[in-house]
Design goal:
Blueprint (H helix, E strand, L loop, with lengths): L3 H7 L19 E4 L20 H7 L7 E5 L11 E3 L5 E5 L11 E4 L7 E5 L5 E3 L2 E4 L8 E5 L5 E3 L2 E3 L16 E5 L5 E3 L2 E3 L10 E5 L4 E4 L2 E5 L6 E6 L5 E6 L2 E5 L9 E6 L5 E5 L4 E3 L4 E3 L6 E2 L17
Parallel strand pairs: 1-2, 2-4, 3-6, 4-7, 5-8, 6-9, 7-10, 8-11, 9-12, 10-13, 11-14, 12-15, 13-16, 14-17, 15-18, 16-19, 17-20, 18-21, 19-22, 20-23, 21-24, 22-25
Length: 321
C-alpha cells in the first residue's frame, strides 16, 4: 500500500500537496498517473509503474477512504475519450508539478478537437481535494462548451487553472451564450489560489467564465480572467434560482482584457434568476481591472468590507498619463 508519506518519498521528497492537510494519512492509498512517461499496462503503484491513463488510476481508488491519485506533470496532457466523472467521495487528485502558481500547470486534463466532449470533467464527489491541475476545454465543434462542473459539495480546489472556451473557431464555444469555463452547482466548496477563465481567446457571446448556483461557496485569492468586448459577457454569473445564502470572494482579481483598451464587458459579476436571497460578499482586497467594467449588475445585493456599495462601488484608479 502506498501511503501519503511513501508518495512524497517516491517523488524525491517534493511536498506535492504543500500545506494542504494530512490527506491520505488515515488509511488512504495513493496511485500514480503519468501521461508522459507512463504505460497503458502500468499498475499505478509507483511513479516508475504509473499508468498513462487517469481513469485507470482513479478506478483503483475506493469511495470514501481518502485514497488519491498523483498526476505527474509533463509534456503530454491527459485527453479522456469520454467525459470524466469523479464521483467518489473523499478521493483526491494532486498534480506533482513545479509549484507554478495560478495558471499553466503541466498536470493537464484537456478537451480538444479530437475528443470534443460536451463537458470535460465533472467533480460530483464530495470531500475531495484537487490541487495543481489544469483543466483546458479546447473543443472546436459548434456546440456549447463546458470545462469543469463541480456538482459535489465541501470540496477544496487549490492552485488549479480552469481554462474554458479555449478555441478560436468562428462557431465554437467562445461564440455561444450557453458556454462556460467553471460551473459550481454544489455547496460549500472552496477555491484557493486558482485561475478561473482564459484571456487569450476572444469571447463574442454573453457567456460566463464562472457560473455559481450552489450555496455558500468560497473563492480565496483567485483570479477571474477573460478577453471580451461583448458587453454581456461575465467573469462570474451568480444564478440566484434558490436561497443561496452567500458567495464570498476574498482577495480576488477580476480582470477583463480588451485589445487597445476597447470598451469591454459591462459588469464583472452578473446576478440573475428568481431566487429568494443571495449575498455576494467582496472583501476590501478584491481588484477590478477592465475598461468600463462595473462590479455587478445589481450592486444593491453586493456587500463589501470597503466603502459602502453604490453605483461606482468603492475606489478604483485608472491613470490618465
Amino acid at each position: 500500500m502506498t501511503t501519503f508519506s511513501d508518495m512524497v518519498n517516491m517523488l524525491g521528497g517534493v511536498p506535492v500537496a504543500g500545506g494542504l492537510g494530512a490527506v491520505g494519512l488515515n488509511g488512504g492509498k495513493w496511485y500514480f498517473c503519468d501521461p508522459t512517461n507512463g504505460t497503458a499496462n502500468g499498475d499505478c503503484e509507483s511513479p516508475e509503474t504509473a499508468s498513462n491513463s487517469l481513469l485507470v488510476a482513479y478506478n483503483k481508488c475506493r469511495d470514501g477512504r481518502n485514497d488519491g491519485v498523483v498526476f505527474i506533470a509533463g509534456a503530454t496532457a491527459y485527453k479522456p475519450a469520454t467525459a470524466f466523472v469523479w464521483s467518489k467521495n473523499y478521493t483526491h487528485l494532486i498534480g506533482a508539478t513545479n509549484g507554478l502558481p495560478g495558471m499553466g500547470q503541466r498536470a493537464r486534463i484537456v478537451n480538444d478537437a479530437a475528443n470534443d466532449l460536451a463537458i470535460l470533467f465533472t467533480l460530483s464527489g464530495s470531500g475531495c481535494l484537487f490541487a495543481n491541475i489544469q483543466f483546458f476545454d479546447g473543443k472546436d465543434n459548434a456546440a456549447d462548451g463546458a470545462c469543469l462542473l463541480v456538482s459535489g459539495s465541501r470540496n477544496h480546489i487549490v492552485n488549479c487553472f480552469v481554462a474554458g472556451m479555449g478555441d478560436a473557431t468562428a462557431s465554437g464555444p467562445a461564440t455561444r451564450a450557453g458556454s462556460y469555463g467553471l460551473k459550481v452547482s454544489g455547496s460549500e466548496n472552496t477555491f484557493t489560489q486558482c485561475t478561473l477563465g482564459l484571456d487569450t481567446i476572444v469571447r463574442s457571446a454573453a457567456n460566463a467564465e464562472v457560473i455559481v448556483s450552489g450555496i455558500r461557496n468560497r473563492f480565496n485569492k483567485c483570479e477571474f480572467r477573460s478577453n471580451s468586448v461583448t458587453a454581456g459577457h461575465l467573469l462570474v454569473s451568480i444564478d440566484n434560482t434558490a436561497d443561496m445564502r452567500d458567495v464570498q470572494f476574498n482577495d480576488c482579481l477580476f480582470f477583463n482584457y480588451s485589445t487597445n483598451w476597447a470598451t469591454g464587458i459591462t459588469d464583472a459579476i452578473g446576478i440573475s434568476g428568481g431566487g429568494s436571497t443571495v449575498f455576494p460578499i467582496l472583501d476590501a482586497l478584491c481588484r477590478f481591472v477592465g475598461v468600463g467594467m462595473g462590479v455587478a449588475s445589481t450592486v444593491t445585493h453586493v456587500y463589501g468590507t470597503g466603502p459602502a456599495p453604490n453605483a461606482g462601488f468603492g475606489i478604483a484608479t485608472n491613470p490618465t498619463t
